[in-house]
Predict the 3D structure of the following.
Amino acid sequence: MDAPADFRALPSIDHLLKSEAAAPLLDRYGRTLVTDELRATLQDIRAAMRTGGTPPDEAGIFAALLARLEHRDRSNLRPLFNLTGTVLHTNLGRALLAEEAIAAAVDAMREAAALEFDLDSGRRGERDSHLRGLLCELTGAEDATIVNNNAAAVLIALNAVGAGREAIVSRGELIEIGGAFRMPDIMERAGVRLVEVGTTNRTHPKDYRGALRPETALILKVHTSNYRIEGFTAEVPGAELADIAKEAGVALVNDLGSGTLIDLSRFGLKREPTVREAVAEGAGLVTFSGDKLLGGPQAGFIVGRRDLIAEINRNPLKRALRVDKIRIAALEATLKLYRDPDRLAARLPTFRLLSRKECDIRQQAERLAPALATLLAPLGYAVDVCACASQIGSGALPVDTIPSAGLRITGASGGALETLAARLRALPRPILGRIGDGALILDLRCLLDEAGFLDSLSSGFAPS
């Protein structure tokens, strides 16, 4: 019978909204949201009072309200520390953009821009024109166009060149990647009829030649970027496929997947075929991504023969798959960095991270280990420096790893690692590692902000 009197002692919503403490919250979040969350806060307080809880004063009410508002307002799409050991992590946004690209994107967001306006003639222009010249310069292609990702690039290339006809592809290249992207399904949606040749592990020139018919529109070559078939294998190189396609009067479409504009061996990585090489081999069209090894924002590039690019640009799908001014600005700035390949590692985050030396990362781990141990030891965790094997990610060089170093965290009880991983994900700036072999591993290859890392840890684990 005392509870109703206690409830009446709580200040009213109207009183709280008129108080001085409410003013900054109303200014930041708006009256509607503050009122809704204040009502929910008071409901929580009443529920606690029913079980014997002590009602807070007004300062306590506003502290609880602020916590609710911050949680409600907090975006899941916020910065985090990628310590998973995968540099181009698809689920974490892939490539980090260069400062030049970020500045260009901000300018494009802030002001009007000549996206489809030719400043020389004063007439309507084409949005692809901002990138066409750069792409042709860097790849040696006759022409180029751009869509919103590489899956879209493959889709529209197949549809524009081969709709209603047949496309020949090796069984060993009928890939499936994340997000249920399966090449046979994409081909079906593009309106081409799939003709499989060869076997899973071996395909020969005679297989392609034997499948050519009047109904053949193209030969499709797909870079097996997210897996490798090893052992008793055979595939037909792009140059030889280009000759076969030319003899038959059909197009060769070469999907490079991640794609790269430079020789990766300069960064100590295994060599991947470059876009320029694929063009020089004679492919009619080459498709590749902008947000993987290229190190830019999400995009799908198509370069190759002028007549085939024109067919793509006339395709109705092109408008549905086009990119906006923000991405075009960031891509232009990113592509310009490739004019000076000797400074790419210093200016492009993707190659800066991939080229970090193992010894430097280990020294970083040795610097951070004592501080991390101090925070986690009271909770029953041990911290050690360990060797790691980083991956490029996003399908690039799937069986190749890069020597790295990190922090190995072990817990004394079952489930302790999952508990710690959840707490790290709940930090204001989340920290993501990977659990394996009885430990939570924080691979430090992608950690450039040590101070921010320690601040984030301290905010969640420092003694109260």
